[in-house]
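Hi C.,

You asked whether I'd gotten around to modeling the 324-residue construct. I have! Everything is below, sequence then structure, no commentary in between.
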Amino acid sequence: MLNIRVLISTVLIASSLAGADDSKKASHARKPVDYTLTSAAGDNSLRLSETRGRFVALHFLLKTDCPICARHVQEYVRNAPSVAGVVHLFIKPDSADDIKSWSKMLGETAGKVTLYRDANAQFAKKLKIPDGYNFHNESVHFPALVVLDRDGVEAFRYVGKDTTDRMPFSKFALKLMELSQNESICEYNLEGEKIGLKGHDPVAYFTVNRAEKGRDNLTSIYRGVTYRFVSPENRELFAADPESFMPAYGGWCATAMADGGKKVDIDPGNYKISNNRLLLFYKGWLGNALNDWNKDEQGNLVKADAEWKKIAPHDAPKSYTHKK
């Protein structure tokens, strides 16, 4: 498994990494990209505008029977949960039957991913993916990775020179760290190598209603903060929708935040889920801040939200839609 925490320490030099230009920005795409993709099986479709608020990685795979494309899909599916808030879409221009046959190369990964069909490479052409690559006696578009930001605007692309030239996941992770770094991260309650929630699993608070210490070898990074998990299943839930599980007020005591924006440390086991938001509280020899919070929860929520917005304007409260 990739050690993404180690990669964070090198994020500042990501822009100097050699290669075919992993951050090759397309001058033609300065407005949101929208398109409806249909699964190769024809049983569902996805409109890109539905993914707003998350990064989207569009993986344009080669036409024909390509084992390197299969390895690329396996690498990204295996490591995707380690970088949260990204939707990975794998796209092939083959016929539905050919895609079904090719998917056998994916092994167990086939059951974990939806493959989308780009008939006649129309979407690839719309995004101006270069074609003219001779492969298996056919002229096809080059393998490419196009990443859209949270607004649906192209953030960067990597176009391979041939079938073996693909952006490895480790390099992709570095680039995402650079693009998604939270401008308010310096205001968060973090430990060590930017560990959130004192190493506790953010998903467990919602699924099993208790604080559980996560494993240091099972992590996911979201906007520069590393979160730990007790199980791969919890990590996958977080990676798919991290905002639903984020602690309020950067992980500081909610009661103290309401009291003039004070940053007071918390006891991870002293918490409350309120309106689908994870609120944390101080508990120690000075007392239990949760008790004070409960005396006027609605009033405290208004005060705490206002104070946190002053402290971290780029991390203001959002509408939480988490469903247990």
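If it helps when you're writing up: The chain has two domains: 4-180, 185-315.

Thanks,
B.
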